[in-house]
Amino acid sequence: xxxxxxxxxxxxxxxxxxxxxxxxxxxxxxxxxxxxxxxxxxxxxxxxxxxxxxxxxxxxxxxxxxxxxxxxxxxxxxxxxxxxxxxxxxxxxxxxxxxxxxxxxxxxxxxxxxxxxxxxxxxxxxxxxxxxxxxxxxxxxxxxxxxxxxxxxxxxxxxxxxxxxxxxxxxxxxxxxxxxxxxxxxxxxxxxxxxxxxxxxxxxxxxxxxxxxxxxxxxxxxxxxxxxxxxxxxxxxxxxxxxxxxxxxxxxxxxxxxxxxxxxxxxxxxxxxxxxxxxxxxxxxxxxxxxxxxxxxxxxxxxxxxxxxxxxxxxxxxxxxxxxxxxxxxxxxxxxxxxxxxxxxxxxxxxxxxxxxxxxxxxxxxxxxxxxxxxxxxxxxxxxxxxxxxxxxxxxxxxxxxxxxxxxxxxxxxxxxxxxxxxxxxxxxxxxxxxxxxxxxxxxxxxxxxxxxxxxxxxxxxxxxxxxxxxxxxxxxxxxxxxxxxxxxxxxxxxxxxxxxxxxxxxxxxxxxxxxxxxxxxxxxxxxxxxxxxxxxxxxxxxxxxxxxxxxxxxxxxxxxxxxxxxxxxxxxxxxxxxxxxxxxxxxxxxxxxxxxxxxxxxxxxxxxxxxxxxxxxxxxxxxxxxxxxxxxxxxxxxxxxxxxxxxxxxxxxxxxxxxxxxxxxxxxxxxxxxxxxxxxxxxxxxxxxxx
Length: 692
What we know:
By secondary structure, the protein is an alpha+beta fold. It is built from 21 helices and eight strands. The strands form two sheets. A four-stranded antiparallel beta sheet has the order 2-3-1-4, sandwiched between helices. α6 (155-189) runs parallel beside α8 (226-257).
């Protein structure tokens, strides 16, 4: 009687495990709830929040907070009439500006600056009333807008409009992502119920990632921006759904061989778990390389993206299996995988046909594919120039409309002050230097305090033109150590220069880190090099396609400075992710004594459908960003979506398979699999844990 009792107890214990996991997740969600909702409160999206602490414009912003009144909110009120302003218009402008001055403490009395053609009056309005509080700043800007009939622009208004756009992203981004993933899962699973399980789990993972990110911000002061949280949500749903596709596919297979769902899930986790862990680890390592960036926003995106991937991994390997086991086979209805049955004999799959063509003519496939990717990469030569502030929205908020009106009315001079902060002991010299600098129209002394003095400089050239950029560089060179040069245009210049520096540091670091991880995973040098070269080629081609469509088709007037770096990190990490799935299966076949050529074709045939489904889901989730109202998000989403599709259907299917066939056993050099087939495979199998 002892043996039957032990069996009954074991069965009861197995049934209790998934319920215990579900109970644990209920506790985790309850603990995370107070923190997840606070993530939006610590999100910052000012240009200066994206910059490194060492940048001149960052120093200006930080010192300005120490001046009397603290950080100032600078606005420009723009009164305009196409046919010319009449006396009544000017009287209305004077009255409304007086109301603003009466209702808020201003740093100086605003004075009218008329355009030469008489169509426009410009008033500069600056107040320290809001300080560094973004909510107070937004309240001040909105109150001014309610008071005046003018267009309200300037740095303060631009920051308010940008904040409103980023705040509006959370809902539409999440809902659109969920809808896209749901539609694709219904088509992939062909079940009215199964699609909902991984979608709910992905939602839980996203909720958990928000709580963990908030905790990281509180503990380590990582930068949190609308861009990083938006990308985190995309990664959770995209990568998480990919892991779910692999697990559910393997689980379905095991349910036909195993009578109890618990045992089938345990076998499925042992089979695909190592590949999922390896791919998630590779993506995480790639994302964490962004910690080496100087750009505050990029450095903050690294751990934020890593948190998203890790939360997706934990949820998909614990919560998803528990739910599937509790629901049993019926969740697959109407295509229920009954025990002891065999799946219908599949027709010759598309991937078998594609792999067959790569296997028959590997040299032709490689040459043609490489030429196609190189030709697409030439599109980078058509990239629009640097993205200006006024071009960063896909729509035109009021602050941008005001900037456009000023640019047309004052083409002969700058309309956006450049801020110089100098030590008070050197302020007179700094003022003389600024007035004498090339390209400077005027300079005036402002607030002083704490040993620093503020100087407002007006350039002769329009904002963010080559002329104004040259003026900023000349000011920095002439002032030397006596002062810092900041303001909105200087911030954009610092963003561009810091992004260039980060590319030189982070890109080699990502390549080296990912290559090292692949070498350890695949026990080879050649196979990892093939994968890394392939994903770099995909990145170049995806950027090239972006250059062909950004301005001609989408009307984007510039390219975000951070696009090359961020797209590289994501495409390399995610592309290698799929390469691991393919090479892992190829390596399994070789360990069983299958010749590399046959192993490559078998791996493509058996994993191609799952990888294609995962690629479609990931590309679709990143494509959601294309509809967002910020150009930098739209550009990033488009390039990554295109890159994932290229990687899934061209590079992974044809080029990697063709290279593996052509290299034959050398693809595993210098590992044991590159030597004598039977003996090498036997030795490797003896050292390799099951499932790896």
